[in-house]
Design goal:
Length: 582
């Protein structure tokens, strides 16, 4: 059929500033007239013409509520703006890492390659009619749009007067694989619905030794559990873990993607992944059933991960350090060596110690995966991670939850390859404790205060910045709270100069650095859709191997007390306890 292009008059809508993770709001905000359309048109207008006219775009997401409607709207707007073809994952499902892989790896039957993508996700936030929705744009390298583009998008949202849409284009059946062909004023326009998993699975098989992992999973001594929390990871879990690697179907938990994530909170941590945590023997009540050897969970869009051993939690900071320390031996993709490693500033310094010992390039960057992407595009970084359960490598330009799980399974398979018929397998806990014995342990915890009054949160941060002008005053407060905590030797706001493009990112978190290597970090997070989230990071380094086996919360209790008194958390926020502790 031939479609027509309509110009629809509109007016700017406040609050459409995309953060590092795109634009996130409640569904009720997104379904307002023109809200989504204004943002999509503002994005098209922010891109250079060759990235739109005649281009191939990917449009998919984590399947949360409103995604199917949003996909149809974006398809019609793409047609009207001169896009040549749109690729959609079957049922509108593509994990965020899979979108990155599709942009970088997929070639159409006519030789076409994608130049960008609209990803529909609010990541680890809940879904449903009264919950969260989100949209972000990824570039031709497969990574999130840089600040220069997101700033342009925001400026465009403040002046927009019209958007283009092909209103008479019929809705596409995104449940069926196939190609729909149309004609418009600028010529041919196609929509291809393709298998959500094939490209991603192919990429994973090129990185890892699936045969070695399969041997581990088929061992009677090794048991495994994967929880997709009803997010988009479910679209990949059966294909990879059951079909390719031979895991039992019963090892998959909550692997049917749902618009509301089954009414749960798709955030893979000890608070929200309750069913997995209980199954792994980390719940509040003892289970008579012997827990699996290995467990993992994903968030809504499958870019985050949580790694668990039997009755054992692996912190994300330790996880990336352990993957980096073992990658060359255990993962074929890295057999020729690592280019470098990087972590976000709030992440513990466990990776720093590995980098120093292995003589690797090391980078500390602000929170936001685009900073890692710059380093990777320049060939400076192979493995990176952040404490917020994000781990990844230069195979794509997003964090990748399933990649992290396969990395851990690869390490376990490598450590046990001569041991599958022996008395006892090397476990997750064994690997972590061996790592601590070599590199020391970074005791680490994060306190999240969610949906805090935005004004109160800003006041608290401003108070901390002002406090930093006097180390004497800081140390007086520290000693007033706990005399057994060492002195603060440096206090600053983290600032980053990108070694690739020279850009400077300021106000990236408030840091208090102690004489013994301990750290307190305070950040305001932009990942929620309402209010503000204050994140408090607490870290203490212990090199003495006889002291690396303490309970984390017990070891950190003095620093926690100092942090709460130093920041006047209760006075500013009215919160006597965090919403989530990880």
């Amino acid at each position: 059929m031939v479609f027509k292009v309509s110009k629809v008059s509109t007016t700017p809508i406040d609050g459409q500033k995309p953060g590092t993770s795109g634009l996130r709001k409640k569904v009720k905000v997104f379904i307002q007239p023109h809200y989504l359309q204004n943002f999509v048109q503002s994005t098209f207008n922010a891109l250079t013409p060759e990235k739109v006219r005649g281009a191939t775009l990917v449009v998919s997401g984590d399947g949360r509520y409103f995604s199917k409607d949003a996909i149809q709207i974006i398809i019609k707007m793409s047609a009207a703006n001169g896009v040549r073809r749109v690729w959609v994952g079957q049922n509108g499902l593509l994990s965020t890492p899979a979108v990155s892989a599709v942009i970088r790896e997929r070639v159409g039957v006519d030789g076409s390659k994608a130049t960008g993508a609209f990803i529909l996700t609010a990541s680890h936030n809940p879904g449903g009619p009264h919950e969260d929705f989100g949209i972000k744009y990824n570039m031709e390298n497969g990574g999130p749009a840089p600040e220069a583009i997101t700033d342009k998008i925001f400026e465009n949202t403040k002046t927009i007067t019209e958007y283009l849409i092909a209103e008479d284009l019929p809705n596409i059946d995104i449940s069926t694989i196939g190609v729909a062909n149309f004609s418009g004023p600028e010529g041919q326009f196609d929509v291809e619905v393709f298998d959500s998993a094939s490209d991603y699975v192919k990429l994973m098989k090129s990185i890892f030794d699936f045969e070695l992992i399969r041997k581990l999973l088929s061992s009677s001594k090794f048991t495994f559990c994967y929880d997709a929390l009803h997010g988009v990871a479910g679209a990949y879990a059966h294909r990879i873990f059951v079909e390719e690697l031979g895991a039992q179907e019963s090892s998959l938990l909550n692997c049917v993607p749902k618009e509301d994530f089954g009414g749960g909170h798709p955030d893979p941590n000890l608070t929200y992944a309750k069913e997995l945590v209980a199954r792994m023997g980390l719940g509040k009540s003892d289970s008579a059933v012997d827990p699996p050897e290995f467990g993992a969970a994903a968030d809504g869009d499958a870019d985050r991960n949580m790694i668990l051993g039997k009755r054992f939690f692996v912190t994300p900071s330790d996880s990336v350090a352990i993957i980096a320390a073992n990658a060359v031996n255990a993962i074929p993709y890295f057999s020729s060596g690592l280019k470098g490693v990087a972590r976000s500033m709030p992440t513990s310094a466990a990776l720093d110690v590995v980098a120093k010992n292995l003589n690797l390039k090391f980078f500390e960057v602000p929170t936001g995966w685009k900073f890692f992407g710059n380093l990777m595009d320049a060939g400076l970084c192979s493995i990176c991670g952040e404490e917020s359960f994000g781990t990844g490598s230069d195979h794509i330009r997003e964090k990748d939850g399933i990649w992290a799980v396969l990395a851990w399974l690869s390490i376990l398979a490598f450590k046990n390859k001569e041991n599958l018929n022996g008395d006892k397998l090397v476990t997750v806990e064994d690997i972590v404790r061996q790592h601590w014995a070599i590199y020391g342990r970074h005791y680490y915890t994060r306190y999240d205060y969610e949906n805090v009054d935005a004004g109160a949160a800003k006041d608290l941060m401003a108070y901390l910045v002002k406090l930093q002008s006097s180390l004497d005053e800081i140390n007086s407060s520290v000693k007033g709270a706990r005399s057994d905590v060492s002195n603060v030797v440096n206090a600053d706001e983290f600032e980053y100069k990108d070694p690739v493009d020279g850009s400077v990112s300021k106000h990236q978190g408030i840091r208090f650095l102690f004489e013994d290597g301990s750290r307190l970090v305070f950040r305001l997070s932009g990942t929620g859709s309402e209010g503000a989230t204050i994140r408090l990071y607490i870290e203490q380094y212990e090199k003495d191997s006889s002291k690396t086996g303490r309970d984390s919360q017990e070891a950190l209790a003095p620093l926690v007390e100092v942090a709460l008194k130093l920041s006047k958390m209760l006075e500013f926020t009215g919160r006597s306890a965090p919403t989530v502790i990880t």
